[in-house]
Amino acid sequence: MKLNDVGIQSKTDWEKANVALPDFDRAQMKAETQAAPTWVHFGAGNIFRGFIARLQQTLLQEGLVTGGIVAADTFDFDIIDKIYEPFDDMTLLVTLQPDGSMKKEVVASVAKGLRASFAYPADMEALRRIFASASLQMVSFTITEKGYALADMNGAFFPFVTADFENGPEGCTHAMSLVASLLYTRYQAGGTPMAVVSMDNCSHNGEKLKSSVVKVAEEWRSRGFVPDAFVAWLTNEEKVSFPWTMIDKITPRPAKVVEETLAACGIEDMTPIVTGKNTFIAPFVNAEPSQYLVVEDRFPNGRPPLERAGVYFASRQTVNDTERMKVTTCLNPLHTALAVYGCLLGYDSIAAEMRDPALKALVEKIGYVEGMPVVTNPKIFDPKDFIREVIEVRLPNPFIPDTPQRIATDTSQKIPIRFGETIKAYAAHADLQPSDLTFIPLAIAGWLRYLLAIDDDGKPMACSSDPMLADLQAQLAGVTPGKAESVSGKLAPILSNPLLFGVDLAAVGLGSKIEDMVKQLLSGKGAVRATLQRYLHN
């Protein structure tokens, strides 16, 4: 059985393999998309294929829309060449249930995959035609937070971004420059309104996207490439809106057990590849069942009825509250605590960590005990229900191959939001004090112990990539596991850095507490485990 337009015509074979096939006319969908495109998505990876494209498929199957999505990638063209084109732009979605069963279906709502690059003139011409079409309602993104960045940590523009400023709309390479160029095409074609929608997993994502696209346009204006009227159109929310969103679904790297299961079913060519950009990706996507997408309802040219597929449409404030609930209380802080302690204790699976009574108790304390008193309630769903699903269903799912090492990536960039916001909320509360906290400080202390790159058995341990890793390790030079006092005097500059934690931890009364915890974590082999048990027992 082959995953392509011809292969899926052998419906009996797919049914025997318990794979659900699309029950709409793909040829008609492609023709409708060609004639009147409504939706382009940038970022052709797993979260798009396993979540967002599946939303449109629901609408197609219920007859609520007639067109599909045009997927485009600005970075890793091997995904289009090797994962889209050989499979006629379809994906095999495998939903990994907590009981070990697999729900398999072919997602066929993508009309075409394109390479968003001037190195591929035909693809760029196709995108220009789409952007000039008055029917286009929305452009969405899952390109990761880094995809929006124009400058480094010191505020200096990246050289390739500066080159885009100088080369103008016809010779740019960065994702934000390419989008600005395509929006200029739309402006020149009459400027029909549209929505530009980040669906990336980062706070205030619409604001980040708008800021970068507008900055590119302003730089082009200053060099005479575009007129003032284009920038005015781009910054008019009635013409071009940048809705905020909150997205939540785990689509980890392809799992070997899934690949083997599909091969045993007789489905061919499911072997993952590693692209030239070092992306590990497969023709299938394995994903958890749970998913959330909350979208600010500002679409000046209309939108698909995605609420019929389970999307929440709400105000910007509600989107922001939902994002804050997730990233500061109900999911992300738990993930980070599991990441650093999981690495120290030798785990390579989040689900396995959740079978460790001490680690499960740690995230319960961080979430239920310390987070809930200051949680932001978005009111479209209950934070207690959300966190209960995270702790009892999502994180323990043994069939989701997610690792603490992956989640530990870029921790320095996550700490201010994941823990700092709760600490600030305690400081602002009439009846609470940061000094009341124990388990969030313990998570921070665990991260500092993790940075030493020595596990709880005293063995060398690789730290995940992080832009501040080298600097922080330099500040911790001389701190040695087994020598608790070696930390004395080393932590003050780190703990008092408000950029790192979102707050001066020493000023709010947590400096000495965290330093004492780090000393305990350093006291010898097995000290990490012993310290966790000591605090959790108390």
Question: What does this entry look like structurally?
Answer:
By secondary structure, this protein is an alpha/beta fold. The chain is built from 23 helices and 15 strands. The chain has helices spanning 11-16, 26-35, 46-61, 77-84, 121-131, 159-167, 175-188, 205-222, 228-234, 256-264, 316-330, 332-344, 350-353, 357-371, 383-394, 404-407, 411-428, 439-450, 469-475, 492-495, 498-501, 511-521, 527-537, and strands at 19-20, 39-42, 69-73, 91-96, 102-107, 110-115, 138-141, 194-198, 240-241, 245-248, 273-274, 280-281, 284-287, 292-296, 312-314. The strands form four sheets. The protein has a six-stranded parallel sheet, with helices on both faces. Strand 4 and strand 5 (102-107) form a beta hairpin. The chain starts with 10 loop residues before the first helix and ends with a helix. The model has no long low-confidence stretch (mean pLDDT 96).
What is the terminal-to-terminal distance?
57 Å
Supply Rg. 24 Å
- Residues in helices, as a percent range: 40-55%
Major sheet, described briefly? 6 strands, parallel
**Unreliable residue runs:** none
Strand content: 5-15%
- The shape, in one word, is globular
What structural category characterises the helix and strand content? alpha/beta
Mean residue pLDDT = 96
SSE arrangement:
Blueprint: H1 11-16, E1 19-20, H2 26-35, E2 39-42, H3 46-61, E3 69-73, H4 77-84, E4 91-96, E5 102-107, E6 110-115, H5 121-131, E7 138-141, H6 159-167, H7 175-188, E8 194-198, H8 205-222, H9 228-234, E9 240-241, E10 245-248, H10 256-264, E11 273-274, E12 280-281, E13 284-287, E14 292-296, E15 312-314, H11 316-330, H12 332-344, H13 350-353, H14 357-371, H15 383-394, H16 404-407, H17 411-428, H18 439-450, H19 469-475, H20 492-495, H21 498-501, H22 511-521, H23 527-537
Parallel strand pairs: 1-5, 2-3, 2-7, 3-6, 4-13, 7-8, 8-9, 14-15
Antiparallel strand pairs: 4-5, 10-14, 11-12
